[in-house]
Amino acid sequence: xNGVPNFHHCYTFVLLFFVLVLLFPALSVSTNTLSxxxxxxxxxxxxxxxxxxxxxxxxxxxxxNSGWYIGIWYKVISKRTYVWVAxxxxxxxxxxxxxxxxxxxxxxxxxxxxxxxxxxxxTNLTRGDVKSPVIAELLDNGxxxxxxxxxxxxxxxxxxxxxxxxxxxxxxxxLPEMKLGWDRxxxxxxxxRSWRSPDDPSSGDYSFKMETKGFPQIFLWKSDSRxxxxxxxxxxxxxxxxxxxxxxxxxxxxxxxxxEEVTYSFQITKNNIYSxxxxxxxxxxxxxxxxxxxxxxxxxxxxxxxQCDQYKVCGSYSYCDSNKSPVCQCIxxxxxxxxxxxxxxxxxxxxxxxxxxxxxxxxxxxxxxxKNIKLPDSMEASVDRRIGVKECEDRCLKDCTCTAxxxxxxxxxxxxxxxxxxxxxDIRSYTKTTSQDLYVRVVRQAAADQDDKSKKSxxxxxxxxxxxxxxxxxxxxxxxxxxxxxxxxxxGSQDLPMKEAxxxxxxxxxxxxxxxxxxLPLMEFDAVAIATDNFSDANKLGQGGFGIVYKGRLLExxxxxxxxxxxxxxxxxxxxxxxxxxxxxxxxxxxxRLLGCCVDKDEKMLIYEYLENLSFDSHLFEDxxxxxxxxx
Length: 632
Prior knowledge:
The protein is an alpha+beta fold and 632 residues long.
C-alpha cells in the first residue's frame, strides 16, 4: 500500500541487531570510559578497552570456578592474562551482575534480585567535595582510574583529578609504572597478594610487601605470619639478591626512598614489549616478558630458587653457600653455637654461630671480608649516603654496637655507607662478581691469624706453582732425551707379553722376565681386580680427566692406589709404556712412588703407593675466598 511505512522491515532489522550483539559480543563497540549513565553487565558482554587496545576490562569467569569477577587483562596479546581483579574476595554467584557508577563510586551490584540490588564491591570513596560527575577510565598502562569528568589531565605523572586508581590496589601482578610500597603521606602500603589457586583469584597464602624499618627491603610472607624470603637492600641498580637479574635494554628499575614514599617500580621504554612481575599461588616471585613468536610468556627471573633463598635458613653469623655441603658455614672468627653442637653435626645449622672471642671494642678490631654475597637483613642497619667505604670503616670501629659495614651503592666503585648494629642474619654467597662485599667485625687477634694464614697460603701457592712449572719442564726434557736414546729398543718391544705377572704380589716380576726396558713390575688384570674388589665404588678415591683412582689391598696386605685410565684415550701401548718408564725413573721424597702397571687389551692402569692423608693439592689449595683486613 503506497504511503504506508513497512514496519515489518524495521522490526526485522532491530531483531537482527540484538541477535548479533548477544551472539557475537565482539562486534559490540567498546570505549575506554564508563560514565554515570552507562554500565557493564555480564549478559551484554560489553567491556572497556584502553585507547591503544592494550588492556581490556570486563566480567570474566574461570573454567573451574563458578564465580564471576570484574578484571583487567591484556587485549593486545593472544593468551588471556589477568593482571587485576576487583572483587577477588566477593565473586558474583550468578551471571546477574553489573558495574556502574553510583554516588561518585564505582560499584559492582548483584542484580539477581531485581528489587534490591546488592553491592558486592565498591571503590569506597567518602569525599564529599566532588561536585561534578565522575567517570571511570582505563588507561594504556592498565590503570583503571576514577576521576572528575571535568578534569582531562588523567595520566599518572600528574594525577590531579584522580579520585581512585586500581594501581593503588594490586592483586598478584605488578605492571610497568605500578608502584609497590609505602605512600608516607597517607600511610598507604601497596602490596602483592597471590591467588588462592590458578583458577581462584581470591586472596591466597602469600604476600610480597615493603618493610621500611632500618633500610627498606621487601619480604615474601606466608599467611602474614612467617617470612619465607627477603630481598636485599637496593644497591643502586637492583636488589642485591639478584645478580643475574640484570635489567635488559628496555627495562628500567626504580627504587625511591624519600619523605613522601618508599616504593619499587619498573618501566618499559619501548613500545610492543610487555613485561610483568607476579606472585604465584605457590609463593614464587616471577618476572615474565611476552614472546610473540612463541605466543607465550617467557620467565627470565624467579625467587626463591634454592635452599639458600629461605629466610634465615642458617641462623646468625653464618652464611649459606649452595655449592658447599653443608650449605651453612660459620663466618671466620665464629663457631657453631655452643647450645647446638649436636644438631650442627647432623647437618642442621639453623641455630647459627657465635663469636669465638668477644670484640675488644677499643678501636683495634679488624674485619673479615665476605666477597660476592647477598647482604644481611637490614632491619638493624643504618645508612649514610654522604660517606665512602673508608669513613664507613672508621665509623664502625668507633661504635661498640657495630657488627658489620658495606657499600650502600655499587656505582662508581662503591659509595655510601651501611652499618649493622645487631646480629647478622640471612646471608648467602654468590659466584657472580656483581654481588656486594660485607665487612664483618672480629677481634684483632682473629683477624691477624686469618691474615697471616692468607699470606702464608698465598706464598705456598706461589712457590708451589713455580716448583711445579720447573718440574714439568724437567720431566719433558728428560723424557725427550730418554725417548731418543731408547727408540730402537722400544720399537723392538712390540711383541712383549703384557699379562705376565703372578697374582699375589707386586714383588713378583714377569715369568718370562722380559721387563728390563720397563724398569718396574707388570701386574695382571685379575690381580688388580681382586685388590680393588672388582673396582668397587666403595673403593673409589676420586676421578679426573684421564680416569678413576681406586684404593686397593694386595693379598699380602699392602695398600695401593690404582689409576684406571679412561678407555676412550687414544694413547697406544707403546706410548703408554714409554710414559710408565719415564715416571718410574722419577724418584723424590715428595712424589708418590709408582709401583707398577697393568696393560690388558684396552685396559691401562698405573699402580701407585697409597697415601693416607689425601693428595698434596688438597692441603695447598683450600678456600681463599675470604680475606682479612687488619687495623692497627
